[in-house]
Here is the input.
Amino acid sequence: MNAGTMTSSSNRDLVVILSGMLKKLRGVEEIGPGRWRACCPLHDDQHPSLYITLEDDRLLIHCFAGCKTNDIVCTLGFKMADLFARSPGPRQRVHKIRDLDGHIVAEHVRIDSPTGKKFGGGEAAGKDQMVSR
Ligand SMILES: [Zn+2]
Here is the structure.
């Protein structure tokens, strides 16, 4: 895998999903930058007919034998939502903390992962941080 494609934070999670999928597939072959071919897990695939393309904000999965992408993704243990980057970013809720005069003294930022899934160190979901002004 090309480390140079992993610098964008928007598709970092997609790379995690992608590598998880590739591990479960047979006959995986990298056919170009961000493009893989593998044997489809849903039909008796003698010649790899499953094509996976990593784009900036999504993973494209297509079986040329006509299997449904949704079924392929489920078989691999993922959800369709996993194929899309969190765009425009993680859901953020900002609670403004005001003093008695109504001046904003701090912002309480809560970031929730839309999938509820934890990545990496396991702190991605429900992380709290204080931003002082
Ligand atoms: Zn197929």
Q: What stands out?
A: The chain has two domains: 3-83, 91-132. The pocket of zinc ion is lined by residues 40, 42-43, 63, 65, 67 (CB under 6 Å).
